[in-house]
């Protein structure tokens, strides 16, 4: 009887985890997840997660080593969400490791350093890693590692059960804070997961730079229509802005943070707004809702750029057009010209 009860409890816990993961993914997609940003201590957060999972590690005889740099600065963000990232990575490391150890490392990064294509902002950053000595991940599996409903580990090698959503959620949370997450692995040698975060959300960081303005060549800057582009990806931002300014003669202001869009829209009264769904601080859906509920901005045409998942929601909220990612610059230009 006790054995059956243990199975029931384990399966109940797994079902609860699955439901919570699905709800988190749905909230992230819809832009309705709440972010309780505040100062927090990464060292305390890491030690709390280690304490919670130490019993699982002890069952397998796995030492948990912690290497945290002294005098870490406080970070800004939602500590519960960052703890969720840490918990997912450490629990996976324990789950997929049969012998050896798991090592958690935390250290600061200097401003302007480049680590795995992530440029550390002016306010500095933090690098967290979780290294195990487990089964490792094949090169083919690595390419799909952060996709939804994917798990590392070969099914023929008694892969532990899981939802396949944990790493996708980790990526969404880290990306929300303009950080980076990745993994390095060798089969039968182990895997190390890394993620970076900016120290400050409100200080002088790369994601808080003054909005960039692109002016059309040889044109009267005040007479050219103004287009506001809010996009998280810097390469996409620059490409669209350059195309609209040079090819179509628009003035273009680019932003990377959702919470700045309303202020800019009220101040500058753009002819049109191009809005991505995935933006830090405030999602594109929430920005659209605010724009269409304010008398000062309700009449501004808004072009949404996202996947098909949000089409119905955005059009219901009042979007003037909806373009699917990846969007071609010519398609965006034609859409704006049609709206204007």
What is the secondary structure topology, with strand pairs?
Elements (H helix, E strand, L loop, with lengths): L1 H29 L7 E3 L1 H18 L4 E5 L6 E3 L1 H17 L6 E8 L4 E2 L2 E2 L5 E8 L6 H4 L23 H11 L3 E7 L3 E9 L13 E3 L11 E5 L3 H15 L2 E5 L5 H8 L3 E5 L7 H8 L10 E5 L4 H7 L3 E4 L4 H11 L1
Parallel strand pairs: 2-4, 11-12, 11-13, 13-14, 14-15
Antiparallel strand pairs: 1-3, 4-7, 5-6, 7-9, 8-9, 10-12
Helix pairs in contact: 1-5, 2-3, 3-5, 6-10
Architecture overview:
By secondary structure, this protein is of the alpha/beta class. It has helices spanning 2-30, 42-59, 79-95, 139-142, 166-176, 234-248, 261-268, 284-291, 311-317, 329-339; strands spanning 38-40, 64-68, 75-77, 102-109, 114-115, 118-119, 125-132, 180-186, 190-198, 212-214, 226-230, 251-255, 272-276, 302-306, 321-324. The strands form 4 sheets. Strands 10-12-11-13-14-15 form a 6-stranded mixed sheet, sandwiched between helices. Strands 2-4-7-9-8 form a 5-stranded mixed sheet. A hairpin with a 3-residue loop joins strand 8 (180-186) and strand 9 (190-198). The protein is elongated and about 70 Å long. 35% of the residues are buried.
């Amino acid at each position: 009887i006790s054995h059956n009860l243990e199975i029931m409890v384990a399966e109940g816990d797994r079902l609860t985890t699955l439901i919570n993961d699905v709800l988190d993914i749905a909230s992230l997609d819809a832009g309705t997840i709440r972010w309780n940003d505040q100062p927090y201590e990464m060292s305390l957060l890491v030690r709390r997660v280690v304490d919670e999972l130490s019993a699982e590690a002890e069952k397998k005889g796995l030492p948990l080593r912690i290497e945290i740099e002294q005098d870490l600065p406080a970070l800004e963000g939602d500590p519960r969400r960052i703890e969720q990232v840490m918990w997912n990575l450490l629990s996976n490391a324990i789950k997929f490791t049969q012998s050896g150890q798991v090592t958690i490392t935390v250290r600061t990064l200097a401003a302007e350093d480049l680590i795995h294509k992530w440029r550390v902002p002016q306010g500095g950053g933090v690098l967290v890693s979780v290294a195990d000595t487990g089964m490792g991940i094949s090169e083919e599996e690595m390419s799909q590692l952060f996709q939804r409903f994917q798990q590392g580990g070969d099914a023929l090698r008694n892969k532990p059960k899981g939802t396949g959503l944990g790493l996708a959620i980790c990526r969404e949370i880290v990306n929300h804070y303009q950080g980076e997450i990745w993994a390095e692995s060798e089969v039968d040698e182990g895997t190390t997961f890394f993620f970076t975060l900016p120290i400050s959300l409100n200080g002088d960081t790369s994601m808080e730079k003054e909005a960039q303005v692109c002016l059309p060549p040889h044109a009267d800057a005040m007479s050219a229509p103004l287009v506001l582009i809010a996009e998280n990806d810097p390469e996409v931002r620059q490409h669209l802005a350059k195309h609209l300014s040079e090819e179509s003669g628009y003035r273009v202001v680019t932003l990377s943070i959702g919470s700045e869009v309303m202020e800019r829209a009220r101040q500058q009264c753009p002819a049109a707004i191009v809005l991505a769904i995935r933006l830090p601080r405030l999602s594109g859906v929430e920005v659209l809702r605010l724009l269409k509920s304010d008398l000062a901005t309700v009449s501004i045409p808004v072009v949404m750029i996202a996947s098909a998942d949000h089409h119905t929601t955005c059009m219901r909220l009042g979007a003037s057009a909806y373009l699917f990612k990846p969007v071609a610059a010519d398609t965006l230009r034609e859409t704006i010209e049609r709206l204007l």
